[in-house]
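Folding problem:
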Amino acid sequence: MSSSLSPQRITATFRQLQPYVRRTPVVEVDAADFGLPPAPLVLKLEHLQHSGSFKVRGAFANLLAHPPGPAGVVAASGGNHGAAVAYAAMKLGVRATIFVPEVASPAKVARIRAYGAELKVGGERYADALAASEEWLLQSGGQPVHAFDQEETLLGQGTVGLEFEDQAPGLDTLLVAVGGGGLIGGIAAWSAGRVRLVGVEPEGAPTLTRALEAGRPVDAEAGGIAADSLAPRRVGERMFPLAQAYVERVVLVPDEAIVRAQQALWDVTRLVTEPGGAAAFAALLSGGCQPRPGERVGVLLCGGNSAAVDFGRSGEEGAS
């Protein structure tokens, strides 16, 4: 486990990021409002972050730590990371080239274009976009900004854990969606066992589940309704030791539970999340995670780049 991914460095990164990112709010609700046994739930609304997800933290951490040259920055993304890098580059006056797969939602593609980045669309999944970006890097001399397997990315995402702990001290358990693992890895580096961390993955993209079974990052299935944000094929090498040490368990949730979670968050709290952003909450609604009596649970709503409120009505809207 890298000693450089320490709470001290995450604190320093947090201070550096403060002029550029939002301190997203938290809201406390009763699980009974969602038809569950009464229990206090604290929702961290990181989907209200600049660019629509937590990923802008890692993007700014990278660009501030390593100011790019004339070729600018290059990122591969299912959508949210690309939007985050494009936003950070726009704010810092840096050129950005973003590669996304065909599965990227129109809402995310529109955000990337609106921030002024050069957009390249191709390939079926994130892994295809990553390969294309790596080939382009060899020709362009640009600076890569990895979506999850880069030190600065993990440090930036770890600031979510710092901020959440400051806003809601005393949480017993924290539910975090997992794709490549940058978010849960950064939070694990911050909390270092002070809170019970539960990863949540779609059944169609069990990246951390397969890695923990194998004892190392391995290729996994990469499908499902949240494929544009939670299906990178495998988790990052840098986050994996942190997951082994500090993630208590991983819950798999079906696509149907994710859609129900999106709808329930809208119906009860009027919060609009994308499938990946609602995945952690789906662990509660599906019964995959059941709070113990008196347990105080935090849920990270991590992405809000959804194209519609009528979740699951069509392929485009349901996979937003």
User: Anything to note?
Assistant: DSSP finds 13 helices and ten strands in the chain.
